[in-house]
Structure formats: structure tokens, C-alpha cells
Design brief:
The protein is α/β, with parallel strands linked by helices and about 425 residues long. It has helices at about 110-130, 140-160, 165-175, 185-195, 205-210, 210-225, 230-245, 250-265, 270-290, 290-305, 340-355, 375-380, 395-400, 425-435, and strands spanning about 5, 20-25, 35-40, 45-50, 60-65, 70-75, 85-90, 95-100, 105-110, 315, 320, 330-335, 360-370, 385-390, 410-415, 420. The strands form four sheets. It has a five-stranded mixed β-sheet. It is globular, with a radius of gyration of 26 Å. The two termini are about 25 Å apart. About 30% of the residues are buried.
Length: about 425
């Protein structure tokens, strides 16, 4: 899943004549070229500047006195959503870091960044020690109390150290549930869940300016379950609880945040939850705000999400996709006779199809074509595919309904025509089919 690293600095008035720097060393250096710096505020991001990574992996961005203190995001590769980290720039000191592709960011010079990082390490380690108590039987009650008191001490210490800083808002909001007496595993889990959001203010503008609320919500949805084998209803209940927390914020922030949460769920291969979130909460918000572009994107996603029944269309002789009942699995291929990748991949798909009759697979190849002559000749090579012509190519309604943006595009359906997979590469396609 996507990782976000939060490090925060003191908010102090900047000196009118000062010029400060964001400086970093990237490793391995040949993997990085350019960085882009954004100022984050209330769910939006504003471009500030960029920096070039040299052959040694060094990068620096000069900031003049007009750049305000606050939360910033540094993007180091594309796609931006997957390759970034956040920090606080206080307009009073340089921010110096090392970044490693595997281990992430380490702040070398930036006091509040280091403070929050130290807090996170300490509180996580102390919580892990407490959780280890549940693997021991019988439980040592005195040791349990000592470890619980250690968590409390760490929280109080860092709350005091960070007083008056932006870091304090995140440290306060990160406060975990701390049991005063030994609890059995089920009671402890229930209490952790019940107290999870109590220290978090979803209207706090500083928290809203980072990924903090999204990350905390994502963790709650995936991990806060009282059952060892949570059901769909359990996950839905957690989504409902998260959306209830966001409901006190402005609708515009809610929409931006829930769309980001949806994208996290998709990236984690939880499209069934992303669909529920979209239908139940995000689409109504987009309609409420009259954000028509977002409505179109959301409806496109829901229409061809994994787990959803694929859009119906005519195959041949008034027979539709839904009428077919002659296979266990169906493969839809959107291709074009003038697409080089298609002409390389379709013969391989055809060979796989012929050599694996046990898969009980029916292939429907949809040709996106401006004219029919070349398509009619090409399909003679694959006589055992069922061929469908989508005249007009990208203007045809069929690729629009399936949100096809490139060829070839693959959709695997089950016997009921529900979408089970959308492999991007040919190797991904054969890997999925091998498991059928």
C-alpha cells in the first residue's frame, strides 16, 4: 500500500530577510531526476517550486521569505500520488533529509520533524510491547500495568515537549487507548476501537492539510475489527464509522478526502469496499456540490469496478453478453487493428486459449475500428474468438461504457458476468487465468 511519512516542525514567524532551503540526498541517485514541492492547506495543494537531483543524488530548493510556514509535500517521482512524503516547513530553519527508496525518509536537520519521528517510534514500540502480553499465558498483571504506564508516560512526555508547535496537534491526535488495568484481548480490542477517534478533530485545519486523517481512517477500516475473520458487513460498518467522523467537516473537504480514501482502497485491491464507499457517500456528496466532473468519474468507476456486473452489449444476432451461458469464465478484449501492442498480444492470448481448454473460457474480442476492411481480415487469424465490431473507435459507446482508455484492455468475467479482474499487462492476464 501507499506509505505516507509525517514529520512536523515548529511554526515560528519567519525573518523577512532569510532564505532557507529544503535539502535532501536520494538513494540510489540514478532512480531520481526531479522533485516538486507543494504547499498543503485544507485539502488542496499549491505548487511552490522544483529541485533537480544531481548525479550524486543531492537536491536543494531555495525558499525566500514569501514562502509561509506550514505542511508541505515533496514529490520525487511519478505517479505523484505514490511517490511523495510530507513534512513541516517552519520558515525558520532548513529542512535536511536523506531519502532511500526502500526505507523512506530520515530527517537530518529539522527539530520538529525529528521530534514527531521520535514520538512515533517510541509510542509504536511501547504499544507493541503491550500487545505482546496477549501471546503469553498466564498474563503477568503487574508487567501489563507497567507497560501500560510506559505508553502513558511517553504520550505525556512528548505532549509536553511539543507544546506550542504544529507537531503537538499530531501528537495529541495520535494518542492511543491506554488501559488502566489488565484487559482480556476482546475487551482491549473493543476499547481501542471505541476510543480510536476520540483525540482526533476532523475540523482541525492543520490535520486537514496532511494525509493524517486519511491514513488514520484507512487503518481503522482495515484493522479495527473484533472478529479475526471480518465479514463484508464488518468492513462496511467501519466505513460508516469513518464517514460519520468526516461528516462534521465541510462538504468540499469531505469529498476530497473520501475520494482519496477510495483510491487507497482500490490500490489495496479492495474495490468492493471502494464501490460501497462511492455509492453510499461520495456520489451523493458530488451531486450535492454539483461537481459534475467528479460525478462522471465516480459513475465510470462504479460501472466497471471489480465485483460489479459488467455492462451488457450485443454480441451477434441479437444475442447479448448477458444471454451467454456457455462458459465458466469470459474474457473481454478491447483492441484495434492499428494497435501494435494488440497485434503482438492477441496471437499470444489466442495460443493460450487453444492450449487451455480446461479453463472453460470464452473470449470476446471487441475491435475498436474507424473502418471495417482491415479488421475483417485480421479476425480471420483468430476464428475461435467471438468478434464484436465497435465502429467509430473511441467515439463508440461501448469503450466509453467500459471506460477503456488504451488498447489492448482486458476484463475477466465470471459465469454471471461479474468483473473479477482487470489485468493491465499480458503477463498479469495469463497469471490470473492460470489460477482459474
Amino acid at each position: 500500500m501507499i506509505k505516507h511519512l509525517f514529520c512536523f516542525s515548529v511554526m515560528l514567524p519567519f525573518l523577512g530577510f532569510s532564505q532557507l532551503q529544503i535539502k535532501g540526498t536520494f538513494s540510489p541517485p540514478n532512480e531520481f531526476k526531479t522533485t516538486m514541492l507543494y504547499h498543503l492547506s485544507g485539502g488542496s495543494s499549491d505548487y511552490v517550486s522544483y529541485g533537480t537531483v544531481n548525479a550524486q543524488g543531492d537536491m536543494q530548493i531555495e525558499l525566500d521569505a514569501s514562502v509561509p510556514s506550514g505542511i508541505y509535500r515533496l514529490v520525487y517521482a511519478l505517479p505523484q500520488a505514490d511517490h511523495n512524503f510530507e513534512f513541516i516547513y517552519d520558515a525558520n530553519e532548513d529542512v535536511v533529509f536523506n531519502f532511500d527508496m526502500d526505507s523512506g525518509v530520515e530527517f537530518i536537520d529539522s527539530k520538529e520533524n525529528q521530534l514527531f519521528h521520535s514520538y512515533t517510534q517510541a509510542i509504536n514500540a511501547a504499544q507493541k510491547e503491550l500487545l505482546q502480553m496477549y501471546s503469553k499465558s498466564p498474563m503477568d498483571s503487574q508487567l501489563y500495568k507497567l507497560r501500560s504506564q510506559k505508553i502513558d508516560s511517553i504520550q505525556k512526555t512528548y505532549t509536553a515537549l511539543s507544546k506550542g508547535t504544529i507537531a503537538a496537534q499530531f501528537i495529541t491526535a495520535s494518542q492511543p487507548y491506554i488501559p488502566s488495568n489488565p484487559e482480556d484481548a476482546n475487551t482491549y480490542t473493543q476499547n481501542v476501537k471505541a476510543h480510536y477517534f476520540k483525540a482526533i478533530d476532523f475540523q482541525d485545519s492543520v490535520l486537514q492539510s496532511s494525509n493524517f486523517l486519511i491514513d488514520k481512517s484507512f487503518n481503522y477500516i482495515l484493522q479495527l475489527h473484533t472478529s479475526k475473520t471480518p465479514s463484508f458487513q464488518d468492513f462496511k460498518a467501519n466505513v460508516d464509522a469513518v464517514c460519520q467522523q468526516f461528516s462534521i467537516a465541510k462538504p468540499e473537504f469531505q469529498l476530497t478526502s473520501l475520494v482519496a480514501l477510495k483510491d487507497f482502497l482500490i490500490a489495496s485491491q479492495l474495490e468492493f469496499l471502494a464501490v460501497y464507499l462511492t455509492k453510499t457517500y461520495i456520489l451523493p456528496l458530488a451531486h450535492q456540490l454539483k461537481d459534475l466532473d467528479q460525478v462522471v468519474k465516480l459513475e465510470d468507476f462504479v460501472r466497471v469496478a471489480i465485483g460489479v456486473k459488467a455492462p451488457d452489449f450485443l454480441i451477434e444476432n441479437q444475442t447479448s453478453l448477458y444471454d451467454l451461458d456457455d462458459a465458466t469464465n469470459y474474457l473481454l478484449i478491447f483492441w484495434s487493428s492499428d494497435c501494435g501492442h494488440c497485434l503482438n498480444e492477441l496471437p499470444e492470448v489466442y495460443s493460450y486459449f487453444l492450449s487451455h481448454p480446461e479453463k472453460d473460457l470464452k473470449v470476446i474480442a471487441v475491435g475498436l475500428e474507424k473502418t471495417t476492411e482491415k479488421w475483417q481480415e485480421m479476425i480471420k487469424q483468430w476464428p475461435k474468438f467471438t468478434h464484436v465490431l465497435a465502429e467509430g473507435k473511441w467515439e463508440n459507446d461501448l469503450p466509453k461504457r467500459y471506460v477503456v482508455e488504451a488498447t489492448p484492455s482486458y476484463f475477466i468475467l465470471d459465469a454471471n458476468k461479474a468483473i473479477t479482474s482487470k489485468p493491465y499487462l499480458l503477463k498479469d492476464l495469463t497469471s490470473v487465468l492460470d489460477q482459474k
